[in-house]
């Protein structure tokens, strides 16, 4: 096997999947709560904010977990750096797309959805640790 052997684990079996799943559920919950209490503009604004956090996180998880094993250590480190750079660029691009392309938009709801999804990612170690292994 090559030192840079791709990980053939399905995406739903990756260690980051429980975190991404919880981020998705939080995003949908925040959007539903905003929609119910503040109206449809706040609802879709919160959903977009959550997507701005979720999509780059999923990209990062895909990049980082592409390789596995001790012989892939250099490839994994390289993917960490390029995945983080891509995540930052993707986040900035999504914010620009939302600000420019979506009208009307509730700014507070966008940031609320974004921060709620980010908070789930910040507690990722606790989430992954408590997730049962199959």
Automatic annotation (TrEMBL):
It is found in: Cell membrane. Keywords: Cell membrane, Membrane, Transmembrane, Transmembrane helix. It comes from the Bacteria. The chain crosses the membrane at residues 14-37, 43-65, 85-102, 108-128. Pfam families: ATP-synt_I. One of its GO terms (cellular component) is plasma membrane. InterPro entries: ATP_synth_I. Its main location: membrane. This is F0F1 ATP synthase subunit I.
């Amino acid at each position: 096997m090559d030192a840079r052997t791709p990980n053939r684990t399905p995406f739903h079996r990756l260690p980051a999947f429980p975190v991404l799943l919880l981020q998705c559920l939080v995003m949908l919950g925040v959007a539903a709560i905003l929609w119910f209490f503040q109206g449809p503009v706040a609802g879709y604004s919160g959903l977009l904010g959550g997507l701005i956090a979720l999509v780059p996180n999923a990209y990062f998880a895909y990049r980082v977990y592409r390789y596995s094993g001790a012989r892939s250590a250099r490839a994994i480190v390289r993917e960490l750096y390029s995945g983080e750079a891509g995540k930052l660029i993707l986040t900035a691009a999504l914010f620009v797309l939302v600000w420019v392309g979506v009208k009307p938009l509730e700014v507070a709801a966008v940031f609320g959805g974004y921060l709620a999804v980010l908070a789930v990612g910040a507690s990722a170690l606790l989430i992954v640790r408590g997730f049962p292994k199959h």
